[in-house]
Amino acid sequence: MFNKIFLKKIISLGVCSSTLLILSTGSVFAGDNEVRFELTDNPGRWFDTGTSVAGNRSIAIAAPGVRVKFSGNSNTVHTRTSLIYPTGAANMPFNTKPRKGGDDVTLTTPGLYVFTCSVHPYMFGAVIVDDPKTTGLDLGSSISLVNGITVPSSSDLATRLLRTFFIATNPANWQNYASNKPWHVTYPDVDVRVDIGVVNLPDVLNARYGNDITLSALKNPKTPAVGEIWVATQFETTRNKEKPGTVSAIDGSSWQVTRKVALPSIDMNNPHNMWTDKNQRVIYVTQWFDSKLTVYDRKTGKLIRNVSVGESPAHVMTLTDSDRIHVTNNGDTRTDSVMELAPLATQVLRRVDIGRGNAHAHWMSHDGKTMVTPNVFSGDSTQYNFHTDDIEAILPVSSPFGHPLATGMMPDASKYYVANLLDSTIAVVNMDTHKVMKHINLIKNYDPVAGTITGPIGALPIQTPVSPDGKNMVTANTLSGTITILNTNTDKVVAMLPCDPGCHGVQYGAKQGGGYYAYVSSKFSNRMLIVDPDPNNDGDPSDAKIVGAVGLFAASTTQKDDAIKGNPGMGGQGILPIPVVYNGWVQNLPAAWSSQLTPAQRNPID
């Protein structure tokens, strides 16, 4: 009887027929009151109910007391973490260790619950627990994030997060620059109950953020780049693979996609981040939803080797003095979670103990001495000395659930920066005194309730490298869809540029004739932005601007090792410009690459 009342309410709200199909077939109500999510490696439907609601397979509607069960069909480990939940809800926050097995939680308080994986924080699944006696689907009067932030459910932050959920979990909602159609985001046509009453969900989201938006035309920069740019197009699918992901090469002179590397022979799974050897001959790429570091030939795209390193390998870098490779195992809770490999990954040498597990985007110093890691689960950062094989410091850099995700380092190793995803802050750390000098609040100019913006903002920052000459830092901010520019002399944000949904990856490469470009990728878009952080070369990055935007989808001339099947050019994450021009690496370049650089680029901090 209770489920019949609930079903009657759903029908009266005009929920689409696919939602009714969920209810009637039992995908939501398996047994009495149960929701099942299968965690997968598949783009968009990482938390998969098996049934679509308005093109979305990651959302379910249920009655209070619902038992939410999580199972796994992934090649790596995941957490089940309550990213968003009704303020004060029973059994919240919910957070598991990373594992492949099953978990469950019972939800009794009406409202919106969004689950994520703390290892792969764009994986989303949502449950709306609805009281059938009220009108409108209940989102709760206020929502809380796992790091303690609480806002009204009608606030701009709440609806911005909800919009991000619907974009991330439906590939049809991603920005497609290969099409001339306006960008349309589809939302379930339902009424929802928030703190100010009952409102229509798409009416609110469309009024606040627009829809059917004309995408700007792609544009090549006027000045070419030195070399090429490799981008992890992590969500692109190909014909002869079960798992998603390619790595795409862009020529810096023509700005054309010249090669797609899918590696179907190993079913390369979600390639995430790349680096190269000192001769720039091979590409190292991590398989983030797997356990492998893959090595392939940069010129031919041919597989060289596929090495087991541990769960959810995220980032890879080399030491400048030895060319040894270091990989962070993002899913590994052990304190020795960084793997050291011989040059060219011919063998695994050892596990490096950084005192914490679950490191993500580390950075290495110019002299091969120091590594800094953001430790995602523990809200801190490790500074490790390779010359003494010792931990120099472990420093708190965020709130306990602030999610330190990425680092950038000054080219003289005087200080480093840690991007804290959920806190929307950047910690500045003195590498000599091992003290946090300051926290840069990237959302101080943002009112999370009204949505007003009075200056540069960067909500949910991800990659944040420092320029090779140490004069600026470019940060990709995934929620606000912005690029923030920091003046490293003052450690102040001096500019903000627009970005695409899921703004994610940043790296610097050499511009022909001098200076640098910062390349920016986005998860839910298939273009790469080219930023000139200092157009007039005066050392002041406040005039930074976007000078180009190139597509990441294949052209007729693109060389491929497998036919593209879906999500063309989508899922932009890690970026690797060739040649590597950061201080310490640039001095080791072969003459063929070094000769293409200016004297200032060859010695960026002289």
Automatic annotation (TrEMBL):
Xref: SUPFAM superfamilies: Cupredoxins (SSF49503), Nitrous oxide reductase, N-terminal domain (SSF50974)
Record bears the keyword Hydrolase: no
Signal sequence coordinates: 1-30
Keyword Signal on entry: yes
Protein name, per record: DNA-binding beta-propeller fold protein YncE
Sorted UniProt keywords: DNA-binding, Signal
GO molecular function, one term: DNA binding
Domain of life: Bacteria
